[in-house]
Amino acid sequence: MTAADGGAKHVTQRGLWFEEFEIGTVYEHRPGRTITEADNTFFTTLTMNTQALHLDAAWSATQPGFGGQRLVNSMLTLSTIVGLSVAQLTQGTLVANLGFHDIAFPAPMFAGDTLYGETECTGKRLSKSRPGEGIVDLTHIGRNQDGVIVARASRSTLVRVRPEGE
């Protein structure tokens, strides 16, 4: 604190240190994100995914199963639920993603749907090979505006241990 700021307390947004993660805790990430047609088209073309179910409204209208609607690219859904967690869980404390597994998309997302994320800490341990870091296992869940699970993915992350004096 300085005289110039009137003694105000300063807080910097950051994720959780390894010690702050609690196994079994579900962290809810708000606000959600409404996915637009532009989001879906941009992401799909940016990633070179030419699947007509994401890009071609006329073709999709002739297909059974999803009411003739185009589907939101599942990789956009996955990226968004992980992204929703960053500010709350890993901003500035994540060292690396170690891997994703058990990825599923049990229900479709459509343009105009709002995606909400939550993350459960499912395990953690100190790294044996990297002092000052620990492995945290997370399960990300995405729900639409009706509470329907549209995505689920587990991942292992490498997270910094709280530095002395923090």
Q: How would you concisely characterize the structure shown here?
A:
Helices cover 22% and strands 34% of the residues. The longest helix is centred in the middle third of the chain and has 17 residues, at 74-90.
Question: How would you sum up the major sheet?
Answer: 5 strands, antiparallel
**Intertermini distance:** 16 Å
**Unreliable residue runs:** none
How confident overall, as mean pLDDT?
94
Order of helices and strands: EHHHHEEEE
Protein name: MaoC-like domain-containing protein
Family: Belongs to the enoyl-CoA hydratase/isomerase family.
Commentary on this structure:
The chain has a domain at 16-33 and 73-160: Hotdog Thioesterase (Thiol Ester Dehydrase, Chain A). The chain has a five-stranded antiparallel β-sheet with strand order 1-3-4-5-2, with helices on one face. 22% of the residues lie in helices and 34% in strands. With 166 residues, the chain is of the alpha+beta class. Strand 4 and strand 5 (149-160) form a beta hairpin.
